[in-house]
Automatic annotation (TrEMBL):
The keyword Transmembrane helix does not apply. InterPro entries: HDAC_classIV, HDACs, His_deacetylse_dom, His_deacetylse_dom_sf, Ureohydrolase_dom_sf. It comes from the Bacteria. Residues 18-284 form the Histone deacetylase domain. This is Histone deacetylase. The keyword Hydrolase applies. The lineage of its organism: Bacteria, Pseudomonadati, Bacteroidota, Cytophagia, Cytophagales. Keywords: Hydrolase. It comes from Belliella kenyensis.
Amino acid sequence: MLKIAYSPLYAHPLPKGHRFPMEKYELLPEQLVYEGTVKEDSFFVPDDFGEKWITYSHDLAYFDRLKKLSLTKSEIRKTGFPLSDDLIKREIQIMNGSIQACLFALEFGIGMNIAGGTHHAFSDRGEGFCLLNDIAISANYLIANQLAKRILIIDLDVHQGNGTAQMLTHEPNAFTLSIHGQSNYPLHKEKSDLDVGLPDGTTDEVYLSILEYHLFPLIDNFQPDFIIYQSGVDVLKSDKLGRLGMSIAGCKSRDQMVLQSAKKNQIPIMCCMGGGYSPRIADIIEAHSNTYRLAQDIFF
């Protein structure tokens, strides 16, 4: 059965007019249940894995300041979120959800998190709607507990996974692949193990051919025994913060290529949702829903 991390904290309210679409975290589960892709019991509220795994990856001083809400105004502005106790609880819950989704992936082949993909969080700071890096934390958890030996991180959000690259740069057992808009945020790119920067307006056909060119040889050569997939839908042409030219159908084909590769090679995969900022919330929900529909069809 498909297992999906979800918590009411994911939809933490933001000030009116804030550009981050928190409502997608409530609407997406409703849509998946309504259409029959999953049932209510597919969702789980994440367990508490403790602060140990946060400070295993993030600097202790940074996490202490985060909990005390003592970041500077400049640091808060860079995160894009107004800082609050509830927001910190939300970020911790997202981290817990991704770790537990990894454990379900080891059991069922795939595990998913309605939120997550917080790839702009660095070891010592937050950026771009990301305070704690659930991808790096999950990878380190799996490696430290000898649950995986070689982890491939496939980051297909429109923005480079700069925080993930920084946090895992000295971890030889994790390979970071980021395919992103070259001229998009962040202005300064970190060095992933493999970065593929795409020009503005990249279409479905070009994108999918580039993904195929890099993904299949990488799986063959790196031989991962676990995949973490950041499946942001801000690659859509309609996205307010993206600059690529992909359709919803093209985004679905992208997900299909990744998920089928994992299934074919019998590699457990954890999927976290990443970004999506199209003006029509229906477009965001449809693109995200496709990831879950494919997961259900391919793995179950």
